[in-house]
Design brief:
By secondary structure, the chain is of the alpha+beta class. It contains 16 helices and 13 strands. The strands form three sheets. It has a five-stranded mixed beta sheet, with no helix packed on it. Strands 10-9-13-12-11 form a five-stranded mixed beta sheet. A three-stranded antiparallel beta sheet has the order 2-6-5, with no helix packed on it. Strand 5 and strand 6 form a beta hairpin. The longest helix is centred in the C-terminal third of the chain and has 21 residues. It is globular and about 75 Å long. The relative contact order is 0.13. The model has no long low-confidence stretch (mean pLDDT about 100). It binds ligand G3I and ligand 9MR. Ligand G3I binds next to loops. The site of ligand G3I has 14 residues, from loops.
Length: about 550
């Protein structure tokens, strides 16, 4: 079949469909209701995409700007799913992608007025959590009870991990910092909707309040995670009663915390009246975490004996140091933090939970006009442009018309596509090169259906949508539809769950290694760090895509 973004495009966006090489080169875009031809043209030459073993052609129908509902067709092949062309085409997608965080809130009931058929009882109050042996200190010996409520469940499991919370929360804060007007009045029907804060900040706050409890007030260090000893069964949150622990402090968790709190302190500063003292408290927490990390610069987290939940183990800390230093510099105004970042030694790469260095460049670029004299604006722009240029070159050379290739197909590959888009958008914001916007569009197209599996990977969106994500509430709630607004992890050749998904993978090729089955935690789980760039990119393309 012909593959296309199943949600659609802004009128002036770059618009591409992927056709099997065997299809006729004559391509039409037809009105989905009347069948009238709205655009006619030719597909490009056939090219091989090693990642899926396909030979495909691209049809560029960007010239079609008239709002409507369409399909792409060509002789000799099934037509595409339907899609829309209109301004604000990602508004609902963006709302749902943010609402997914509400659905993953720990420690609260979701009532029917906000959660509809996905209403559920409260689980994991985390008001009495034990300090694990690995986290014991003089002031807080093993077994000390602390309160560590709120926060989001990480993913399809019910644990809460600081390393992954950092990049996720930051990305939401960055979306708001870059596009405040887009989010200002946007309502996602969460309990806080209508208060003085935009919903995206209320949602971020739910997790930030939890994160604050993960810092040991005696030394500034931050626990890696709040977790059961082993994963909960496939049950609703209120049915999961296992003892919970905070586990070992680590350098990565502490620096991710510092960076996120420093960011939050400046983003929330205008809301001093609603949140008295919070901004200053967050900056103090960030500085205390930074000091702990300076004194403990290489504490690698590994699951202690007896703990088998997600690890988020990361053994390199240069990127976390750089990111925390950059955010502390911007938020505190102290030049010493810029020097501590060692900018000349820090490159940019596509962000993910274990590599956060680009987040430093994103924030520096956004604030470039108000930074003190020590900041090297030329370097900031160059770092972002160098990365974007490399991604755009891949996009240009790709048979599928996407930057995704080879090593990008990891656990959570769909978020790689969107984080690539997020970085391309940073460069577009700096220098307005149209290719960067178009390559960013390709990443969103990819997760919404222009990929080798033909799925739209966001629950609730697209004609051929994911129905069975590895997400405990979606699996246990007896509701046929999954909780909406979640991005599935996506294809990759690792197939680490094939023991639990016997014989189900259709292919060993990376871009086809995906199963829409809830057995597949390696290809079909959801996670807060994967949804965050979906929130960012859908907002940015709604704002920038029509221009
Ligand atoms: O670092 C190695 C690299 O050196 C090697 O070349 C490469 C080859 O496969 O593997 C790399 O390690 C990978 C690691 O992520 C770091 O990227 C592992 O293969 C891969 O299995 C591992 O996947 C992680 C997965 O947990 C399993 O630990 C995902 O990134 C991570 O997103 C995922 O996170 C889980 C949490 O643990 C628990 N909660 C759900 C969440 C989402 O599935
Ligand atoms: O549900 C767990 C998921 O959140 C993790 O990402 C994944 C990898 O650590 O593990 C899942 O739990 C599975 C466990 O690892 C193996 N037995 C089946 C579990 C899922 O039902």
């Amino acid at each position: 079949a012909i593959r296309v973004n199943q949600v659609g495009f802004a009128p002036l966006a770059h618009k591409v469909a992927v056709l099997p090489a065997g299809a006729s080169g004559e391509v039409e875009v037809i009105d989905a209701a009347s069948g009238a031809v709205a655009w006619r043209g030719r597909a490009g030459p056939a090219g091989a995409w090693r990642e899926s073993g396909e030979s495909v052609r691209l049809a560029d129908f960007s010239a079609l700007a008239r709002p409507g509902e369409y399909r792409v067709r060509a002789a000799g092949v099934a037509p595409s799913e339907r899609f829309a062309v209109r301004a604000g085409v990602y508004a609902e997608l963006n709302r749902a992608a943010l609402k997914a965080y509400y659905f993953n809130r720990s420690g609260t009931a979701l009532d029917a007025s906000h959660a509809g058929v996905h209403a559920r009882a409260a689980g994991h109050p985390d008001t009495r959590v034990l300090v694990h042996a690995s986290a014991a200190s003089k002031e807080r010996p093993e077994g000390t009870v602390i309160a560590s409520a709120k926060g989001w469940y990480d993913a399809g499991d019910y644990n809460k991990y600081i390393v992954n919370s950092g990049i996720s929360t930051y990305t939401l804060l960055a979306a708001f910092e870059h596009y405040p007007d887009y989010f200002a009045r946007k309502r996602s029907a969460i309990p806080e909707s209508g208060n003085a804060l935009p919903d995206i900040l209320d949602e971020a706050l739910w997790n930030l309040e939890w994160m604050l409890t993960m810092q040991d007030p005696h030394d500034g260090g931050v626990y890696n995670k709040l977790t059961n000893l082993r994963f909960d069964g496939i049950v609703m949150p209120d049915q999961a009663g296992a003892e919970r622990y905070v586990v070992q402090k680590g350098t990565a968790a502490t620096l991710d915390f510092a960076a996120t709190m420093a960011t939050a302190s400046r983003v929330l500063k205008p809301y001093e009246r609603q949140l008295p003292g919070l901004s200053a408290k967050m900056l103090r927490a960030a500085e205390a975490a930074w000091e702990w990390a300076r004194a403990n610069p290489a504490v690698v987290f590994r699951n202690p004996a007896g703990v088998v939940t997600g690890e988020y183990g990361d053994a390199t800390f240069d990127d976390e140091f750089a990111w925390a230093a950059a955010e502390l510099y911007i938020s505190s105004g102290k030049d010493s933090y810029y020097a501590a970042m060692r900018p000349a030694a820090v490159t940019a790469s596509v962000p993910q939970w274990a590599d956060v260095r680009a987040l430093a460049w994103i924030s520096l670029a956004h604030h470039r006009n108000s930074l003190s004299a020590v900041a090297d604006r030329t370097l900031i722009a160059a770092r972002i442009d160098t990365l974007a240029a490399a991604l755009a070159a891949r996009w240009r050379a790709s048979a599928y018309g996407v930057p995704m290739q080879g090593d990008d197909f990891v656990w959570g590959s769909n978020a790689v596509a969107l984080n690539q888009s997020m970085m391309l958008l940073q460069a577009y914001r700096l220098n307005g090169k149209r290719d960067y916007l178009d390559a960013a569009q390709a990443g969103l197209d990819y997760v919404l259906g222009r990929n080798a599996t033909g799925y739209s990977f966001v629950t609730g969106f697209g004609a051929r949508q994911v129905m069975h994500p590895h997400h405990r509430p979606s699996m246990a709630d007896q509701v046929a539809a999954p909780v909406p607004g979640f991005l599935a992890g996506g294809p990759h050749a690792g197939q680490q769950d094939k023991g639990d998904c016997k014989g189900q993978y259709p292919s060993a090729l990376p871009a086809l290694s995906y199963i829409d089955d809830d057995c597949s935690y390696a290809s079909n789980e959801v996670a807060i760090n994967w949804n965050a760039p979906l929130v960012y990119v859908s907002a940015a393309l709604d704002v920038l895509g029509g221009t």
